[in-house]
């Protein structure tokens, strides 16, 4: 969207500064509470009809319950008044816009100048202090007190304050181009028109989460959700326009936090009871579910054939298989902004993580110490690799993360010690079909939301491995070596571990 200000762009930029405070200390209540208990009275000042008071609006609809006031810090304006991209007009009036972390402020959004008088703000994709809302808010500020004007002096056809919004890069999806009247004098939201702000106000400060269909001043108002995807990594442009004055604009870049900030070491995978900790991958009757309501139930934990791990209950979308009876702890865990989790660990076979010392190796990588040689099953290594994928928080299935049918991968490499002929491996851990020389058959499919498995690190016996031979491979269980394993869900951050194998 191209905005044509009433003044030449070079003139406009002369009036705009980035990362500015809105007021002198004390002229706005920094501890203002938009949910103030008595919305019929003013938070400060001399009572009804006082021009000096700060009016409190209804916390649900933000409509004016004290028509005598002309100053309205509302809707989140309790945050510190700083970090705005600010237009200061020759008559002293100010118009500002900013992005801020919800309920926190601008500390973590890096307000800087993007050039041409535009402010730049960096925010996190996903949920924040309230998981149902985006991590960030949009804030705006209009102060007409220096000139003595009211909003009516800037109105054309009743519209004096507008905000435009557009997605200009990244994962825009169906996000459109929006133009809001931010200060209608009356508004109907399905309950008839009611007094909103009126035409006499001189001060307005508000902030709101960027879900435009829940903004009661929005022409898109539905009370529900809209095209804005809080999980999208995208760049947005917002412009605030007071009458025919210069627009004041900002770019907001929403991105996932750095990978290492989303990764924790030595984590449990689930709340107690949500996965069967005593699940037995060799369950006697693989044609039924260990728990749940039988074939075809989305709530059951599916049992796979212990020989080939092929899916025997295609109605299920949750698959704790292949060793997932071990206690669900000790993972190096990536928790995505949408709540989905991807975890990887090393563990003593048939025992768990008690003896492997899960610690952080730095840079978000987990470290595990294992014994070289055989373990509870002499033919196998002492240790297993375990992985965990839970897509239930977002409602996605593995298909939503697939590219060319591959949505979950594991890489393996020997990075130190007695590597021998151990190579570099890249496995598709969740193929929808697989052929072992006995014809293709259903494996996991593309609809699953939960997968937890573990396997001994002899990759040529992994039926999902492109190296599959049914025999042994270059892995030497007796070698004293250090290995790196990474689990990758689609294009998300990798979650990696180092496994140090040494003799006891």
What helical percentage do the residues reach?
A: under 10%
What percentage of the residues does DSSP assign to strands (E)? 25-35%
The number of distinct helices, counting runs of at least 4 residues, comes to 1
Overall SS class: mainly beta
Supply Rg.
Answer: 29 Å
Q: List the uncertain runs.
A: 1-8, 29-54, 56-66, 188-195, 276-301, 303-313
- Number of β-strand runs: 28
The geometry reads as: elongated
Spatially, the strands of the biggest sheet line up as: 1-3-4-7-12-2
How widely separated are the two ends? 66 Å
The overall pLDDT average reads 74
Largest sheet: 6 strands, mixed
Q: From N to C, what is the helix and strand string?
A: HEEEEEEEEEEEEEEEEEEEEEEEEEEEE
Structural write-up:
With 504 residues, this protein is mainly beta. It contains one helix and 28 strands. The protein has one helix at 9-14, and strands at 16-20, 71-73, 84-88, 94-101, 112-115, 118-124, 136-143, 161-170, 177-181, 186-188, 193-195, 203-208, 234-242, 248-255, 263-267, 318-320, 331-335, 341-348, 359-362, 365-371, 383-390, 408-417, 424-428, 433-435, 440-442, 450-455, 481-489, 495-502. The strands form six sheets. It has a six-stranded mixed beta sheet. A hairpin with a 5-residue loop joins strand 3 and strand 4 (94-101). The N and C termini lie far apart (66 Å).
Short description:
The chain is an all-beta fold.
Outline the secondary-structure elements.
Layout: H1 9-14, E1 16-20, E2 71-73, E3 84-88, E4 94-101, E5 112-115, E6 118-124, E7 136-143, E8 161-170, E9 177-181, E10 186-188, E11 193-195, E12 203-208, E13 234-242, E14 248-255, E15 263-267, E16 318-320, E17 331-335, E18 341-348, E19 359-362, E20 365-371, E21 383-390, E22 408-417, E23 424-428, E24 433-435, E25 440-442, E26 450-455, E27 481-489, E28 495-502
Parallel strand pairs: 2-12, 6-14, 16-26, 20-28
Antiparallel strand pairs: 1-3, 3-4, 4-7, 5-6, 7-12, 8-9, 8-13, 10-11, 13-14, 15-17, 17-18, 18-21, 19-20, 21-26, 22-23, 22-27, 24-25, 27-28
């Amino acid at each position: 969207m191209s905005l044509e200000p009433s003044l030449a762009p070079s003139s406009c930029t002369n009036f705009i500064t980035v990362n500015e405070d809105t007021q002198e200390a004390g002229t706005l209540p920094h501890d203002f509470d938009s949910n103030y208990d008595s919305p019929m009275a003013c938070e400060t000042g001399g009572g009804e009809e006082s021009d000096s008071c700060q009016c409190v609006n209804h916390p649900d609809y933000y409509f004016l319950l004290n028509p005598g006031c002309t100053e309205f810090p509302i809707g989140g304006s309790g945050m510190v008044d700083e970090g705005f991209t600010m237009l200061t007009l020759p008559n002293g009036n100010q118009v500002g816009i900013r992005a801020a972390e919800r309920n926190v402020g601008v500390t973590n959004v890096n307000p800087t100048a993007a050039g041409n008088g535009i402010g730049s703000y960096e925010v996190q994709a996903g949920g924040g202090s309230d998981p149902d809302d985006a991590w960030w808010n949009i804030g705006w500020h209009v102060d007409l007190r220096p000139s003595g004007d009211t909003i009516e002096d800037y109105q054309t056809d009743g519209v004096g304050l507008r905000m435009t919004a557009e997605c200009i890069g990244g994962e825009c999806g169906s996000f459109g181009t929006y133009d809001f009247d931010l200060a209608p004098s009356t508004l109907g939201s399905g309950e008839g028109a009611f007094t909103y702000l009126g035409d006499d106000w001189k001060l307005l400060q508000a902030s709101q989460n960027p879900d435009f269909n829940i903004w009661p001043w929005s022409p898109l108002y539905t009370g529900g959700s809209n095209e804005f995807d809080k999980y999208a990594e995208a760049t947005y442009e917002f412009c605030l326009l007071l009458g025919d004055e210069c627009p004041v604009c900002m770019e907001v870049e929403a991105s996932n936090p750095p990978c290492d900030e989303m990764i924790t070491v030595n984590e449990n995978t689930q709340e107690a009871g949500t996965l069967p900790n005593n699940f037995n991958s060799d369950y006697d009757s693989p044609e039924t579910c260990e728990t749940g309501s039988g074939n075809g139930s989305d709530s059951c934990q599916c049992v796979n054939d212990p020989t080939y791990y092929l899916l025997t209950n295609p109605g299920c979308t949750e698959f704790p298989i292949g060793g997932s009876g071990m206690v669900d702890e000790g993972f190096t865990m990536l928790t995505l902004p949408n709540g989905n989790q991807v975890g990887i660990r090393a563990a003593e076979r048939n025992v768990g993580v008690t003896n492997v010392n899960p610690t952080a190796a730095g840079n978000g990588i987990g470290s595990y110490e294992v014994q070289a040689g055989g373990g509870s099953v002499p033919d196998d290594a002492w240790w297993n690799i375990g992985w965990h994928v839970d897509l239930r928080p977002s409602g996605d299935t593995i298909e939503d993360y697939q590219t060319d049918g591959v949505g979950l991968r594991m890489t393996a490499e020997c990075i130190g010690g007695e590597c021998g002929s151990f190579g570099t491996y890249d496995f598709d851990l969740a193929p929808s079909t697989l052929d072992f020389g006995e014809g293709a058959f259903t494996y996991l499919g593309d609809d699953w939301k939960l997968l937890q498995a573990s396997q001994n690190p002899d990759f040529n016996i992994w039926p999902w491995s492109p190296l599959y031979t049914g025999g042994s491979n270059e892995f030497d269980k007796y070698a004293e070596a250090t290995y790196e394993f990474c689990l990758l869900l689609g294009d998300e951050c990798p979650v990696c571990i180092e496994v140090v194998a040494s003799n006891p």
